[in-house]
Design goal:
The protein is of the alpha/beta class. Strands 9-8-5-10-11-12 form a six-stranded mixed sheet, sandwiched between helices. A two-stranded antiparallel ribbon has the order 1-2. Helix 4 runs antiparallel to helix 5 and helix 8 packs across helix 9. Helices cover 42% and strands 21% of the residues. It has two domains: 37 residues, no CATH class; 201 residues, von Willebrand factor, type A domain (Rossmann fold). Strand 10, helix 7 and strand 11 form a beta-alpha-beta unit.
Length: 304
């Protein structure tokens, strides 16, 4: 592999050559992270027709002065600070205060299912990278937890300058044996580590109400202490099978089973709602944007 690197002013260029036996780290989707960062900060998610975002008013309790970024309200410009710094500065109020947001990634066998060349775990890792970056840009603190039969990673939430680099390195180094997940270990670890109410985005998958009910006591306990959002996946292959015309009895039988499995997913959403737990049922391809929209919705409703 040959890589030509050019300086920003195009004054200097250098060629790097990598042999076939070299190991090159492949990080989670960096381009996707930057793409959604710009959309969320500039509120262009609304302009692209993805979702209408409700802008909320400011609380009158002043918090701090920060540099202006695209999407900030011009009415909050602090002209005295702008004159001193020679850069546009804005006031930030109490409703923008920092909150903790954790991406909880289930690495068990339920996340091994492949869709369009990626496993559900790959989709969850990419979405976690994007939502963590947006949370930090929105002045919240982002953290990371990964688990299967035990908790493998527990990165405390922060918004320091190198937090995204630390999250990216942790996501890159994730390994899994796709064994059965232990939600009791997750609950115990979070109870010890988190003293402040936080937003927990749990990336997992449930195929039936029975599989949910086994973990439901731990989810209910987490939801009592934190704002929990359970994010799980639609089976898009089942959706295709349901829509296909049937020509024989075997296909009718397969279609009936597919409809039953799809209905189970809707029952899972209702079961979570019954216990006051937020949820997202999404196709793998729309995981990232649906997670971003849920985060922005919760923030606009002042739930975090």
């Amino acid at each position: 592999m040959n890589v030509l690197v050019t300086s920003p002013l195009a004054l200097v260029s250098r060629r790097f050559k990598f042999d076939q036996d070299k190991t090159v780290p492949v990080y989670p989707s960096y381009i996707q992270m930057r793409k959604y960062e710009l959309l969320a900060i500039s509120q262009n998610l609304q302009n692209t027709g993805i979702k209408k975002i409700r802008r909320i008013g400011h609380n009158q309790e002043f918090e701090l002065i920060k540099y202006y970024v695209s999407g900030d309200d011009f009415r909050t410009v602090n002209w005295k600070a702008t004159a001193r710094r020679s850069k546009l500065m804005v006031n930030q109020y109490q409703d923008e205060r920092s909150q903790q947001m954790y991406s909880l990634i289930d690495k068990s066998r339920v996340m091994q299912m492949p869709f369009e060349g990626l496993s559900l775990l790959d989709y969850a890792i990419n979405a976690s990278l994007v939502i963590s970056n947006i949370a930090i840009k929105k002045s919240d603190k982002a953290g990371l937890v990964t688990f299967q039969d035990k908790v493998n990673t527990l990165l405390p939430a922060a918004k320091r300058n190198n937090q995204m680099s630390i999250i990216q390195e942790n996501l890159y180094r994730q390994k899994t044996a796709f064994v059965e997940s232990d939600y009791s270990a997750l609950y115990v670890s979070l109870r010890k580590a988190l003293s402040q109410r936080s937003l927990l985005l749990l990336f997992t998958n449930f195929e039936s109400v029975f599989s949910l009910q086994r973990q439901l006591p731990f989810l209910i306990s987490l939801a009592k202490q934190h704002l929990l959002v359970v994010i799980f996946f639609e089976n898009t292959e089942l959706a295709k099978l349901i829509d296909e015309p049937t020509t024989d009895l075997r296909q009718v039988y397969h279609q009936a089973i597919a409809e039953r499995l799809a209905y189970e997913k809707k029952l899972i959403v209702k079961e979570l709602q019954k216990h006051g737990i937020q949820s997202i049922l999404t196709p793998p391809q729309k995981l990232t944007i649906n997670t971003i929209n849920k985060y922005l919705e919760l923030k606009a409703r002042n739930l975090i």
